[in-house]
Amino acid sequence: MKAAVQFGEGLRIEEIPVPRPGPQEVLVRVHACGLNRADLAMLAGRTHGGHGGAGTVLGLEWSGEVTEVGAHVTDLRRGDRVMGSGKGAFAEYAVSDHGRVTKIPASTMSFEQAATLPVALQTMHDALVTHGRLQGGETVLIQGASSGVGLMGLQIARLMGAGMVIGTSTTPDRRERLKDFGAQLSIDTTGADWPQQVLDATQGRGVDLIIDQLAGTQANNNMHACALQARIVNVGRLAGSRAEFDFDLHALKRIEYIGVTFRTRSVEEVREINRRMCADLSPAISDGRLSLPIDRCFAFAEVVEALAHMARNAHFGKIVLAMPA
């Protein structure tokens, strides 16, 4: 099969053997793949959990058709249209644990649309609901809201009953578009006064929950924008993985700071994340209340160009690879 294989900090399409599913896994003929920033991180020489380095098939999410199931898999069968997460997505075939794979819930949903969803749904439901413990009426701030994961966060927050949803982006046109995905207020975090804008919008109280994809130099600003006993769930570090931290402010506001990543999760933990997400969100996925815009769809042969497009950080929503028919 053809696959996008890493060599050094480069990528090339090579012929490699089709993987075989284990007893708890499924083999999927991939029709489309979603790009994620972890793909760029691996190309830059960092690992994603145990994944990365020379010879790695990149890609973390895909959609397609099941072609083979492991001996212990009972919830999926050959021919099912599915979407899922796992390693080795940028290839004609991918293997994943059955618990990370979900049937595409709507017959009208294209493979390209389905490929945008798994990582965003799993990440944001886990952050907002499981770790963020979002309650109806609470105020939520999504940092980095114009990314695919961020846009999904805005929608899930509204769906789960948030009272006010605030999104951030550093680009004016992208901030304007956030309202179409549930943001009642859009903020530019490049201005030093942005925490005061949040306080003004919440009558001086601050937000109850921040889903933070920035961290780094924005860590203290996040805490300034928080209410007493707020929660901050850190899912990304686009503003840096090292910065000063105001421990006194953290203590004064009694903020709960929670770090999450999929890189250290067990198979059983990821199955549970996917199960909880499906239980809460499947109806809204099926009827189109939860969806993501495709910024651009590249042919599989253009995978290098697709990753370069992501690296320029000029996209809104998801970038997708379409596999040849």
TrEMBL record:
SMART domains with a match to the protein in the record: PKS_ER (SM00829)
InterPro entries, per the entry: ADH-like_C (IPR013149), ADH-like_N (IPR013154), ER (IPR020843), GroES-like_sf (IPR011032), NAD(P)-bd_dom_sf (IPR036291), Zinc-ADH_QOR/CCCR (IPR051603)
Record domain Enoyl reductase (ER): where: 8-321
SUPFAM superfamilies: GroES-like, NAD(P)-binding Rossmann-fold domains
Alphabetical UniProt keywords: NADP
The keyword NADP appears for this protein: yes
GO MF annotations in UniProt: oxidoreductase activity
Protein name: Quinone oxidoreductase
Organism of derivation: Variovorax guangxiensis
